[in-house]
Amino acid sequence: MSVTTEQLEKWLVANSETEHLEFKEAKKNFHFEKLVDYCVALANEGGGHIVFGVADKLPRQVVGTTVFDPPAKTAGGIYERLHIKIKATELEYEGERVVVFSVPSRPIGQPIEYKGRYLMRAGEELVPMTPDFLQKIFAEGQPVFEARIARIGLSAEDVVRLLDTQSYFDLMELPYPAEREGVISRFISERLLVDNEGSYSVTNLGALLFAKNLDEFELLARKSVRVTTYDGINKLKTRRDIVGKKGYAVGFAGLIDYIESQLPANEVIGKALRESVPMFPEIAIRELVANALIHQDLEQPGGSVNIDIYDNRMEIGNPGTPTIELDRFIDEYQSRNDRLADLMRRCRICEEKGSGIDKVIIAVETFQLPPPDIRAGTARTNVILFGHKEFADMDRSDKLRACYQHCALKYILGEKMTNQSLRERFGLNNRQTDMASRIIALALEEQLIKLEDPSNTSKRYAKYIPYWA
After folding, report:
1. N vs C: which end of the chain shows fewer Cβ within 10 Å?
2. Residue pair 159/184 in contact by the 8 Å Cβ criterion
3. Single pTM value for the model
4. Could you say which of 3.30.70.940, 2.120.10.70, 3.30.565.60, 3.20.20.70 is the CATH number of the domain covering 224-386?
5. Would you kindly state where each structural domain of the chain is located, as residue ranges?
6. What's the fold here for domain 394-466?
7. Is 455 exposed, middle or buried (0-12, 13-18, 19+ CB in 10 A)?
8. Sign of the CA dihedral 71, 74, 80, 85?
9. Distances in Å between the alpha carbon of 247 and those of 244, 329, 336, 358?
10. What is the rounded CA–CA span in Å between residue 332 and residue 31?
11. CA-CA distance, 384 to 313, in Å (whole number)?
């Protein structure tokens, strides 16, 4: 499909580059070999578009380009090297020339290489694919991770010995069957077991959720949750380090209890709090730990969910990079492991789709804590919960993040952020309007939020919505 000027206009107002869209100013030159490398990376990441003649910084401007003329010849040169068909489109936009190369996705299970290099993007850079990324591509077309077999050749007695079948029925609020055949039948229907006509196989899903001891499943032992408690605010001194053994569903309640037992209490209490309380609200811990389990990249060998507890914060990390933009966690949902997520919801371990992170933000605001910080590395995602800070001790990024999260939360609850609501979020009084106004002005400047009604010139009565609303 050819790119049109209407499509280009939509891209120009997009908040940021995405995994499927790359802008290059390139007014006069851009190396052909570099273009080939970008095509390799985009194809490996599912396909996308490279747009030349457009600045890659907001506000995005069309600057025009003279590179790759004619573009069809360039597309032919790329095909000779990569053997994938690139669509080249030349547009005129407001008198300026724009060139777009549309890159298809690689074939299923087959990464694209050029000169012996399998490339992917990392921010503004092109880097070699990680072994985990390559392995994930090669595994395409195989059964999803949850459906693969963790252990085979088991009798009904082995199944009951290895899996906590009683906990399954308790979590589902169902009576335990009088006969073992009823237990086995139910586990087969849930795809936790496979009937091999005389013996049974436990699926990865069955073991991950209901194993009495994950060490009994060789390939899943490294998927156990690790909780490390440190003395102080760094990793110099470890107080305690434990690795869970139980499956996620049967061990979840005990995991949350253990985490809470390791947390110090708040010593400094905000205006909304009248007594000493744990450092973090339980609902925030439950939802973030459940999210880490559900959204981890199970294909990463050796990767596990890690929970690191410090004197001033808690970091919850899982293998895998996010499947959605970091600042859209609060309003969007995309699960990596649908079968795992479905069973954990039906076991009442986590919330319905898309209704977890908003509860975390509500709880954090009620406790008047600094906003959670969601960070993505090349192979892991981390969410950081911070202990209580006075408003004066929060830095610029804390305040901006809190403003954006508060604005997004209000929007998804059918309300709008105002100066007053932001003051209440920070625990500021009515005489501190200017402080809230300065934070709002910074958030507007950073294009994190926008006015609900741009024609309203009264700051006092202004209402704000997130940039994507």
Report:
1. N
2. yes
3. 0.72
4. 3.30.565.60
5. 5-138, 145-219, 224-386, 394-466
6. Arc Repressor Mutant, subunit A (1.10.10)
7. exposed
8. negative
9. 8, 26, 18, 26
10. 38
11. 7
451 near 463, Cβ under 8 Å?
A: yes
Q: What is the pLDDT of residues 189-216, one digit of tens each?
A: 999 999 998 899 999 999 999 999 999 9
Q: Are 177 and 120 in contact (CB under 8 A)?
A: no
The set of residues, in sequence order, having a beta carbon less than 8 Å from that of 421 and lying 6+ positions away, is 406, 410, 415
215: number of Cβ within 10 Å: 12
Structure confidence by residue, pLDDT tens digits, 40-84: 999 999 899 999 999 988 778 999 999 999 999 999 999 999 999
Round to whole Å and give the CA distance between 185 and 203: 14
* Element holding 373 (H helix, E strand): strand 373-376
In CATH, the number for domain 5-138 is 3.30.950.30
432-464 pLDDT, tens digit per residue, is 999 999 999 999 999 999 999 888 767 778 999
Report the DSSP pairing between strands 119-122 and 125-128. antiparallel
What amino acid is encoded at 364 in this protein? V
Cis status of the peptide bond prior to 454, with omega within 30 of 0: no
- Joined together, the tokens standing for residue 34 give 């570099």
Residue 306 amino acid letter? N
Spatial CA neighbour of 62 closest among 98, 26, 30: 98
Would you give the DSSP letter of residue 25?
-
